[in-house]
Specification:
The complex is a heterodimer of chains A (486) and B (468).
Chain A (H helix, E strand, L loop, with lengths): L1 H28 L1 H6 L4 H8 L6 E3 L2 E8 L6 E5 L2 H8 L9 H5 L1 H5 L6 H10 L7 E4 L3 H12 L6 E7 L6 E7 L4 H4 L4 H13 L8 H4 L9 H10 L8 E3 L3 E3 L6 E3 L10 E3 H6 L3 H23 L23 H7 L10 H12 L3 E3 L4 E5 L5 E4 L4 E4 L3 H17 L13 E7 L8 E8 L6 E9 L4 H8 L1 H13 L2
Parallel strand pairs in A: 1-4
Antiparallel strand pairs in A: 1-2, 2-3, 4-12, 5-6, 5-17, 7-10, 8-9, 11-14, 12-13, 15-16, 16-17
Chain B lengths: L1 H7 L7 H27 L6 H22 L7 H25 L7 H22 L10 H13 L7 E4 L2 E7 L2 E3 L1 H26 L1 E4 L2 E4 L4 H18 L2 H19 L2 H21 L1 H11 L12 H13 L22 H34 L3 H25 L17 H22 L7 H4 L2 H11 L1
Antiparallel strand pairs in B: 1-2, 2-3, 4-5
Classes of the chains: A alpha+beta (486), B mainly alpha (468).
């Protein structure tokens, strides 16, 4: 019987070899893939239990991990939850958003830039700590932005973005209504799940960062783009005479569009500066009609439309300028209606580009990545995305916008002793809803330090008050003052 | 059987000193792991380390002394392997207990209960060695144990006695004690098969016709194989247990093949089992599920019934990597039944691939020792028993570890000596006692070494048994 016993032995050997090979495959070769699986809660729990790095604004940690006495060892806390929620996002067990998500590898300590730190931790047998993330945000500007939104009357929905024109640094970004990330970072997962369900079901969408995640018709603020396209065409400057009057009859249509105040903008032929000052619909309808869809789309895309540019935050909506609009739609697009939509960030980028001699800088939120001991590991370099307009065009536009703030529709943004450039916008929606109020501006006009876009999406304010930047103007002014006045 | 002669010319050595040395290593593994659990989970050496270590040492020493006294020529490697596995299993259970207790679960005394069961196992181990001085006396019980084995297998189906626990119909409950009869049945069946086959091997081996290159058995000799096939299929369908079914039928086939030396039986049996498994796959939803979970575990993670348990085990073992997270740093409680069928995932997560390989090698060595005992055993009954015990061990380890690591479809079987489970632990200690008894018989100097007998040692020993 020994021959079959030997055969059985070989067979058993093969069985055990198969087990060993499979175990090696599973635990060594496949190990990485399994850890990547989003359902692998071990990986999440381990990250959750680590001392996560802080998110810093100036010298203040707006998000940090403090020791907790439960199984996860650390609790994420946010010192100014509502003000910074759109930027920091939240760090919940099952999901993260905002900087918590985009900079997760740094904050969790897994990033390759933290290699040396990890090595030291390993050798000294201390628990690994995450790196810190320094934001570009200017605390004073953020305070102004948040207070401005909070002081809007009623249950207003709105958003603010402020950029540094020369670099693209995001100086302020606020959105309302918003949420308290402390509650979502709680270790009481049942409560977190309930809250998350409630926030998702909320009609006012508090989880959305409206500054980058909501696109709405930009209305009259888009006239900056129309004017830029007109001046870039070479046929116009700030003093060129352009059509005014009571109405503009759309091509291929019997519809006539009037000015928002029903007036004639001051004559049948007016200067472009005057058209901008009074936000003359007729002028910009006819300019867009004359320039055509291609030229308008090209100009819009140079400013950043039809693409997203901010890489540090998720949940970005793409601002749209469709390339296939017919003639009447193209004309309507000249005043920011038709299918044109923009995020507050996009409109801030338009203002910043005009302020920065036509150079569109890539907006960014993360300034520096720092080791746990706060030594700087990496610093973001400003990066130019495109040259939207020539510097002469930028000068012409600035002149027009300064005039608009000085004596035009944008007077609420005036700052004593500082030259401010700005433009209001009021985009019409359906009759039963209040219009969207926009305001874009930058200051000081001769050496711009800050460009702002404000969107007030819905507010209980009466209709007629909204136009003229009564809602957005003061907020923009407060932010600009916060940045300019040290 | 020419090898037997040379082996018998070998110097017969007891090697008890070597066993003692290996046992010390095994104790170091068991007690060291227990201390490491305390250090890793609670941050301090467990307070009861001395008591626990003393008890474990006492058990192992008792087993060793018994072997010294009543089976001095027994294989020196088996007992240390078993001691190491059992000790490590206890430590891992202790580690799970601590987490279960921290999480407020009712059942968090697995390690303590397992130690009680181990004590009973060692007592039965000692009793087996003391009272069973010659394994051949078991041959008298061929049919008795066969009948008992089948009855035990069928018991869980009976209403009133059988209780489904965790969805498997493999338990019975008598007088408040739940008990897995399949674990005992496998030992009884090995004895029954050995006794039956050693008598009928000639009839099964010699008659038949050759088709192509394979000697096929005679039609009427198919009776036992069909009966065993029937029992296996019953287990498969009634218990939804592909693993046990494969285990018993595979055991039978291996022993049949070894007894008759005819691969034809493997072909016939293999085809039968494949056909049966295919039929079960087509008609039994549970078997189909198991296959789907195995092929696409990630797709059924959230389903119910689903592959959540398996995927969590895979995540855990992947998370463990080469050297593991260390005791207390993993999340073995995420795997349901980590203390029984899935104990290897805990080992993989916290001790890593290194420990998994060590454990698989320990099992491999146990099987290797069993087959070596079969090779050198001087009587057919002993040979068959050793092969049977070795084969069932190999198959069980392959089925359960293969299942947990995703190599084959998952099926509920205990990991010998590691998993929590009284029936399994006690039965496996008896299996080791039987193997030691056979090896003692095989390795001790033959009492009357007759040159005439030596040329036909195999048939001679068969005759001796018949005379009894």
């Amino acid at each position: 019987m020994n021959k079959p016993i030997r055969v059985v032995s070989v067979f058993c050997l093969l069985l055990f070899l198969a087990l060993l090979v499979n175990a090696t495959y599973l635990m060594y070769v496949r190990s990485g893939d399994l850890s990547q699986d989003p359902r692998n809660r071990r990986v999440i729990t381990a990250a959750y239990s680590r001392e996560r790095g802080a998110i810093l604004v100036g010298k203040e940690a707006i998000a940090r991990s403090v020791p907790s006495d439960d199984q996860y060892k650390f609790q994420r806390t946010y010192s100014q939850p509502f003000k910074y929620a759109p930027i920091t996002g939240y760090f919940a067990f099952f999901s993260q958003t905002g900087v918590e998500r985009s900079q997760n590898s740094v904050l969790a300590g897994d990033d390759s830039r933290l290699f040396v730190t990890r090595l030291v931790d390993l050798l000294s047998n201390t628990d690994p700590k995450g790196g810190n993330v320094q934001l570009t945000v200017n605390a004073a500007a953020q305070d102004a932005a948040w207070e401005g939104l909070e002081n809007l009357p009623g249950d207003a929905q709105g958003a603010v973005v402020a950029l540094e024109p020369s670099t693209g640094r995001v100086l302020a970004m606020a959105s309302t209504p918003t949420f308290d990330p402390n509650n979502l970072a709680s270790h009481d997962f049942g409560a977190v799940a309930d809250l998350s369900k409630k926030l998702n079901a909320d009609e006012s969408q508090p989880l959305i960062n409206r500054a980058i995640g909501t696109t709405l018709p930009p209305g009259s603020t888009f006239k900056l783009v129309t004017a830029a396209a007109a001046i870039e065409s070479g046929n116009y400057d700030a003093d060129s005479m352009v059509p005014g009057g009571f109405g503009f009859k759309l091509p291929q249509s019997s519809t006539t569009i009037r000015n928002h105040d029903g007036g004639n903008c001051g004559g049948r032929r007016i200067t472009m500066t005057q058209a901008m000052q009074v936000s003359c619909n007729v002028t910009f309808l006819s300019l867009a009609n004359e320039l055509g869809n291609d030229a308008m789309a090209e100009q819009a895309e140079k400013f950043g439309f039809n693409a997203t540019s901010l890489e540090d935050l998720g949940g970005q909506a793409t601002s749209l300028y469709p390339r296939d609009m017919d003639a009447p739609q193209t004309a309507m697009s000249g005043i920011g209606q038709a299918s044109v939509t923009a995020t507050p960030l996009q409109m801030a980028m338009v203002a910043a580009a005009i302020a920065n001699d036509g150079d569109v800088m890539r907006p960014y939120v993360v300034d520096e990545v720092r080791a746990p001991n706060l030594s700087v590991l990496d610093k973001t370099d400003p990066q130019s995305i495109s040259k939207a307009i020539s510097s002469t065009t930028a000068e012409e536009l600035t002149k027009m916008l300064v005039a608009t703030v000085d004596t035009g529709t944008a007077t609420p943004a005036q700052i004593p002793g500082v030259e401010v450039a700005g433009k209001t916008g009021t985009a019409q929606s359906t009759a039963d809803r209040p219009p969207y109020a926009w305001f874009v501006s930058f200051a000081p006009a001769d050496d711009p330090k800050v460009a702002v876009a404000v969107l007030v999406q819905s507010s209980d304010t009466a209709r007629e008050e909204i136009a003229g930047g009564l809602l957005g103007g003061p907020i923009a002014k407060a932010i600009m003052e916060a940045v300019i006045a040290p | 059987m020419s090898q037997t002669g040379t082996l018998m010319g070998f110097v017969h050595r007891r090697r008890r000193g070597a066993e003692l040395f290996l046992l010390l290593l095994a104790l170091a593994v068991g007690i060291g792991a227990y201390a490491a659990v305390g250090l890793g989970v609670e941050g301090e050496v467990p307070a009861d380390l001395v008591g626990y270590g003393g008890w474990l040492t006492a058990l192992i020493v008792a087993a060793h002394v018994t072997v010294r006294l009543v089976a001095p020529y027994a294989d020196p490697v088996l007992l240390p392997l078993v001691a190491a596995l059992n000790g490590l299993g206890l430590a891992v259970l202790r580690r799970l207990d601590l987490t279960y207790e921290a999480n407020g679960l009712d059942q968090h005394t697995f390690a303590r209960q397992q130690l009680t069961w181990m004590t009973l196992g060692v007592v039965l181990f000692v009793a087996t060695l003391v009272f069973l001085r010659d394994h051949r006396s078991l041959q008298r019980l061929t049919y008795t144990s066969g009948l008992a084995g089948i009855v035990l297998l069928v018991l869980p189906f009976l209403p009133g006695i059988g209780v489904p626990i965790n969805g498997a119909n493999i338990w019975i409950r008598v007088a408040g004690f739940s008990f897995q009869p399949g674990e005992v049945a496998k030992v009884l069946l090995v004895i029954a098969f050995s006794g039956y086959l050693v008598l009928h091997r000639d009839a099964l081996a010699l008659a038949g016709r050759r088709v192509v290159f394979v000697d096929l058995p005679r039609g009427r000799d198919l009776g036992p194989i069909l009966a065993m096939f029937g029992v296996s299929m019953l287990i498969l369908v009634k218990q939804n247990d592909l693993g046990s079914s494969l285990l018993f039928f595979g055991l039978f086939l291996v022993m049949l093949y070894v007894a008759t030396e005819r691969p034809g039986w493997l072909v016939v049996g293999g085809l039968l089992f494949a056909a049966g498994a295919l039929a079960a796959y087509s008609f039994v939803g549970n078997v189909q599920n198991r296959f789907n979970f195995w092929l696409h575990p990630m797709d059924y993670y959230d389903a119910s019934p689903g592959s959540g348990q398996l995927v969590e085990a895979l995540f855990g073992m992947g998370w463990g990597g080469l050297i593991g997270r260390g005791f207390g740093n993993g999340f073995p409680e995420r795997v349901p039944f980590a203390y029984s069928d899935f104990i290897l995932s805990t080992v993989g997560e916290e001790l890593g691939l290194a420990a998994v390989m060590a454990i698989v090698l320990c099992y491999g060595l146990i099987v290797e020792r069993a087959l070596r005992i079969a090779l050198i055993s001087r009587d057919g009954f002993g040979k068959l028993m050793a092969v049977g015990l070795g084969a069932i061990f190999a198959l069980q380890v392959f089925v359960v570890i293969g299942g947990v690591t995703g190599l084959i479809p998952l099926t509920g079987l205990t990991t010998p000596f590691l998993s929590y489970g009284g029936s399994s632990l006690v039965a496996n200690w008896v299996v080791i006692a039987l193997l030691l008894r056979i090896s003692d018989q095989a390795r001790r100097p033959a009492p009357r070494l007759d040159p005439v007998d030596e040329s036909a040692a195999d048939s001679e020993s068969t005759q001796v048994v018949k005379l009894r």
